## 1
Amino acid sequence: MQNSISIRETYAGKHVMIVGASGFLGKVWLAMMLERVPEVGRIYVLIRKRKGKSARERFEQMVNSTHVFQNLHTRFGSKLSQYIWKRVEVVEGDIAQTNLGISPATAQRLYQNLDLFINCAGLVEFNPDLEQGILTNVDGTLNCARFLETCDHAALLHVSTCYVAGIREGRIPETIHLFRSPNAQSFDAEAEYKFIWEVIKLITKDRGNLEHRHQIRDVLVNEGMRRAQIWGWQNTYTYTKGLSECLLARQSKKLRFSIFRPSIVESAIQYPFPGWNEGFNTCGPLALLLGSWFRYLPAKDGNPFDVIPIDLVCNGLTIAGAALMLNKHSMVYQCGTSDTNLLTIDQAAKLTSLSHQIHYRRFGKTAIERIVRPYWRTVTVPKDHIFSVSNLRKITRVLVRILEQPPLQNLAKTTLEFAGRTDRKLEQIENILELFMPFTHDYAQTFDTSSLRAIEVEEEEFRFDTKKIHWPGYWLDVHMPGLRQWCFPSIEKKKKGSFVPPIPFRLPPPQAPEQLQPSLISSPSSVRPPSQVY
């Protein structure tokens, strides 16, 4: 086919830099490339110092402690260090700094050699401190673009999110709305960016006062949510991501770039192994909530719930990068399932509830969990339902006020304490539901993924084929078991299984990669990728 791409041929000998390799998406993509595309020329991993650890120390810790790299440890054993040395260079830097904080000598090499820059970095918290959200999601993106504009031929692949669509509904096209906000107002991204920094400086001018720091953060969180709502974004995260897209498109006229928008990234369907997940800000908290005694989920039946496995996202990212290097790219690639293999929120809720029922029946710790809990099913309801969390909180607050009256204070002390605890628990549930309401109830969005689907990939294991996902099988046998093993323990602050390789990976001294003998490195032909199974 005319639009056919070979991933291995395209990446062979190419120099690729990735930022955000310590995140959920970045780690899986890096491991996948090392395992399946040994022909790659060089992967530069930009990592910043953190908590007294250098970039090199953080990279070693990541490879030696994360299950994502378990396949590589198993395959190469004692030769893994040499295998990675040949293909990876750790670069210490920070996208929040000028020139990405990279040393002049290293930057000079990158200016000449770099072919592709993948920006996976981002603050993915829904409603962060506005200053931190702008620094990471907007300023960081612009700093990457400025660095690449000085390079000889490098292109930028910037990871955003499908939900920059904000409150728009219907079929969401693969376009950037430069002058129109999601709620259809006239929008000037550069003016908004200038204004928001003036607001941040005004809010933070008294930061030196220790007593005011927590208050300042609260004000910044609320201001981010307020700006998002003014323009029609669901939260501060999508607001900052939308703003960065507009600024990148308006200010980087000479730079070759594509924007890559995943939807809700969830458990791996096959790579690195079925069920792998560490996306704590995706549907994990909601799925955990549905395993409690909470029953009534505010959701609009029939609304798309656009979930996509992490390994399919990595395939899409790899394809978009190849197209960009071949100069056959689109400006926007959306990566989701709603346009080809629809999963609705009510289907997802029923499958989640069914998974919990099966789990409690088999592994319940008490008789109530094994006998009663399997019959406690989740029900999707309108958000103003009579048993909505807000209505239940009204009841408990009335009960608290009654029990606080002098005649009842001593007689009903235990009941009063119970009502108070119940109200605090309901408040936590209400906060979770409010975060997810735009995705479960408020807006019906179908994301067009035509750009990725139009590219024919020669290697089967890199193809972007969402139609092969069988949602009941994926949800019950892959996704929910993955959440239980990898995400729920982190959310509940419990211990989870750790990975300790028999032979730890170690980086050589900084000069050693150039001195390695080729005979120590496995040849590309000796490393064949596993087939992908759906």
## 2
Amino acid sequence: MLPQALLRSDVCFEYFSLGVLTDVVVDIPDVPGLDDFKGQVCHSSFWQVKGKEEEEPRRNADFQLCRPAEGIDYKDKRVAIIGTGASGVQMIQEMTPTAAQVTVYQRTPNLSLPMGRRDLTREEQDAQKPMYPTIHEAREHCFAGFHYDLLERNTFDDSPEERREHFEKLWKAAGFHLWLAGYKVSHFL
């Protein structure tokens, strides 16, 4: 039975979250020869939080899984990643600049866009603060709740040069711009 607070009509926001914590069994693929592999085998779900002691993870293979509290040095190593979920994508972008070789095994390609994350100087932060009310207002009227929206024209309404210029602008903006500030028929056919 739902709590009475959820049935009230005068409540602006209510949160009713059900979460079931389960005993997670990590899937380690049955790769021929994995038990004989002499290198490090790591699983993103076993990454150790710095300074936090945890019990030994259960595993469904006989090899030892590494638990890198301080990270792993990939310099000049051959690395294989199985899976390109959120963790896989993050690990790949960290490994590729220094690893000798990175091989990725994926079943389903993921949409991953450069987020363009960087530290802002105090001056950059202060320069944006006067725009906050305008940005927040714009988010109320956009498809995805960002302060930008899909273009109100179709992809082929523009010339090839105009399309390229627009896509380059979106790529440089980074984040979700490429996905959510593009032509209106690019992603919702």
